[in-house]
Design goal:
Elements: E1 16-26, E2 29-38, E3 40-44, H1 49-60, E4 64-69, E5 88-92, H2 98-105, E6 110-113, H3 129-148, E7 152-158, H4 182-201, E8 204-210, E9 212-214, H5 222-232, E10 236-239, E11 246-247, E12 249-251, H6 252-265, E13 270-275, E14 281-282, H7 283-293, E15 300-303, H8 322-327, H9 335-347
Parallel strand pairs: 3-4, 3-6, 4-5, 6-7, 7-8, 8-13, 9-12, 10-15
Antiparallel strand pairs: 1-2, 11-14
Helix pairs in contact: 1-6, 2-3, 3-4, 5-7, 7-9
């Protein structure tokens, strides 16, 4: 006997993971896609830069998604193509509203906690910003999870938790972690809260310390800054610091792929990964690539001086991504390749 359900009935697929093998061609290269997910995902900051790309991937793979975002730095246009989809829900509110977070999180399988203040430098003038949007907001997410019996959290941390070090390459085991920015302190505090909830309430967590993520829908950072400055004055470019700041840049699609790969392949209670390519790019090299892509010549670079761009800036670092590389994930683009592709994305408003 078959059961016919009314067309308005929505069946919730229980959380599970499954594997498939498929090939996809991206910009002429063939990649092997191995992992997909069926889940009911709650994504904080899902209208933001990285979050919106994660939304695209999960919905394309058949999951249902709720985005919770106050749009303080996110952009509704990044998710507008999903607004009419049955498996997508958008909630505009602040994570500091605990009662709303608790209400909207009900019946989800996993939380991807990506919401945060994305502007490292704002901590200089708004000293409670990272306390509220980093630590307090993370507590609210965790408490809402506890009250709704949601046990899985994926968290976007940052390389800035390591602080300024003399190490040539930083593994996840490096310590002590002594951040030099309030943004970094907020991320490290959030990591601590997540670890404590895992230990006390049997949560399972995946935490990623990102390199500098760049790409389509990027709204801030050195690439956007340089392009905006050169559009105003194509003859001179102010560069904060001495231009020798050197960091790894990770393309956003590699970032999302790494997040989901680690989630699929690492099954401990606390799963901590650096997420990075294995190369770096200097700020001066970024300036050169921007001028090249904009078709500008004879641009004068004007350095403000000093080893760092601003207070709290870590001028040079490299992340050791060997832990997640050993699992089988590796960035498809080098740091220079990610930067150049991101420059083209911003110039051509590739959303």
């Amino acid at each position: 006997m078959s059961l016919t359900l009314p067309s308005t009935t929505k069946i919730r697929i229980p959380y599970k993971k499954f594997r498939f093998t498929n090939e996809t061609r991206i910009e002429g290269k063939i990649y092997n896609v191995q992992d997909s997910f069926l889940m009911h995902a709650f994504i904080t900051g899902g209208a933001g830069f990285i979050g919106s790309h994660l939304v695209d991937t999960l919905l394309n793979n058949g999951s249902s998604v709720t985005v919770y975002d106050n749009l303080s730095s996110g952009n509704k246009s990044f998710i507008h193509h999903h607004l009419k989809q049955e498996e997508f829900t958008f909630i505009q509110d602040d994570l500091l509203n605990l009662s709303r977070v608790k209400k909207e999180m009900k019946d989800h399988d996993v939380v991807f906690h990506l919401a945060a203040n994305p502007h490292v430098r704002l901590g200089e003038s708004h000293t409670d910003l990272d306390l509220n949007q980093g630590i307090v907001a993370t507590y609210n997410v965790l408490e809402a999870m506890r009250q709704n019996d949601v046990k899985n959290i994926v968290f976007s941390s940052s390389s800035v938790v390591y602080g300024e070090t003399s190490e040539p390459s930083l593994p996840e085991t490096y310590g002590p972690t002594l951040p030099i920015s309030l943004y970094g302190a907020g991320k490290l505090g959030a990591e601590g809260l997540i670890s404590a909830f895992c230990g006390t309430f049997d949560f399972q967590a995946w935490m990623y310390r990102f390199a500098n993520v760049v790409g389509a829908r990027g709204t801030h950072g050195v690439i956007v800054d340089f392009i905006e400055k050169l559009r105003k004055n194509p003859h001179e470019l102010e560069i904060l610091g001495d231009g020798r700041q050197c960091k790894p840049y990770l393309y956003v699609s590699d970032c999302v792929d790494g997040i989901l790969f680690g989630y699929a392949h690492s099954h401990g209670k606390m799963n901590l990964f650096n997420l990075s390519c294995d190369t770096t790019t200097t700020v001066t090299r970024i300036a050169e690539m921007v001028t090249e892509e904009m078709g500008l010549t004879d641009v004068r670079f004007k350095y403000t001086g000093g080893i760092r761009g601003w207070k709290g800036d870590v001028p040079r670092f490299q992340l050791d991504a060997g832990k997640i590389n050993t699992l089988g994930w590796k960035a498809t683009l080098s740091s220079d390749e990610a930067v150049r592709k991101a420059i083209r994305d911003v110039l051509h408003a590739n959303l």
